[in-house]
What we know:
The protein is of the alpha+beta class.
Amino acid sequence: MLAKRIQPLAYQARRLYVELMFQVMGRALQAVSEVDREVREEAQTLPKGFLFEMMVMPDGAKLIVEHIGEGHFHYHRNSAPRPVDVSIRFKHVAHAFLVLSFQEKTAVAFANDRMLVDGDVSYAVRMTRVLNRLESFILPKIVAKRAVKEYPENLHFPEKLISAAQIYLKVASHFAQTARA
């Protein structure tokens, strides 16, 4: 009896967590593209105006970022200004929760058929590498190693600490700006 009452609460908690994480990740993608040269180099091969979406099916939480040129991303808070080029879609909020709570790597979730990719797979792979780089910066190393396919060997503590601080500062200032708007 108690389990039936708790189940909807657990679902709502996961849904809220996923929504918050998408907001943080969208802003963090914008920030990391301003901070990290490797992310900019990875993103520069994307066409200008490229729109990337990560969402929970069918109409759940989502994040949308646009490549605005020179390897920089712009986070779109509400909706895409036009149809997206690549969409990574989680089949259920529980699947998104596993990935966004760093219990399961994105590659493992894809292998376990927990998500779909709509669009050019090579662009999806590129965006996954950008997301992995971001997670390597903003998560403690022990957590990041669980979250990403391969933790970058050339990411040393001073660079990680400085970059993470810059990213978190930019994310916080973006939240503050949008709260005022």
